[in-house]
Every structure is written in structure tokens, then in C-alpha cells.
Amino acid sequence: MSIDARGRACPEPVLMTKKSLSANPEGVEILVDNVTAMENIKRFATNQGYQVTVEEQGEDYLLKITK
User: Fold this and answer.
1) What pLDDT is attached to residue 43?
2) Which of 17, 29, 30, 31 has its CA 20 to 30 A from that of 58?
């Protein structure tokens, strides 16, 4: 599952990630456009026991969150 959270301010991207992981516990991908959202999502997912990889895509960040 992929989520586009570009243009959204925290904590909304983190809440979107949490909701998506509840529905898809095996993992999700989320696209954000700011460092703060990327860091907050990464911290949340890591604290929940997920592995997180971050790819820079121009001005955006694609976070791949997996178990």
C-alpha cells in the first residue's frame, strides 16, 4: 500500500501511517515532502518494531516500512 502525505503537516502523516499499518501490518510505503514528517514517521515505525528505509526522490522522501 502506498500513501501520499505530501503537503500535510505533522502529526497528520504519522497518523496516516499508523492507520495504514493497522490495515496492512506487513508494511506500507509513504511519500512525504518534508524532513520533519520523514523523521517523525521513521521514529514512530521504528518504535513499533518496523524496519524503515528512506529514498530521496527529488524534494520528496519515500519511506518503505516493513516488518
Assistant:
1) 98
2) 17
Domain containing residue 18: CATH number: 3.30.110.40
Give residue 5's identity as a one-letter amino acid code.
A
Q: Which of 4, 6, 8, 10 is catalytic?
A: 10
Whole-prediction pTM: 0.95
Expressed as residue numbers, the domain containing 50 is: 2-66
Q: Number of folded domains in the chain?
A: 1
Positive or negative: CA dihedral 1, 25, 17, 45 = negative
**Residue 39 falls in the annotated catalytic set:** no
Retrieve residue 6's grid coordinates.
505530501
Convert the pLDDT of each residue in 26-36 to its tens digit: 999 999 999 99
HSE (CB half, 13 Å, CA atoms) of 27? 13
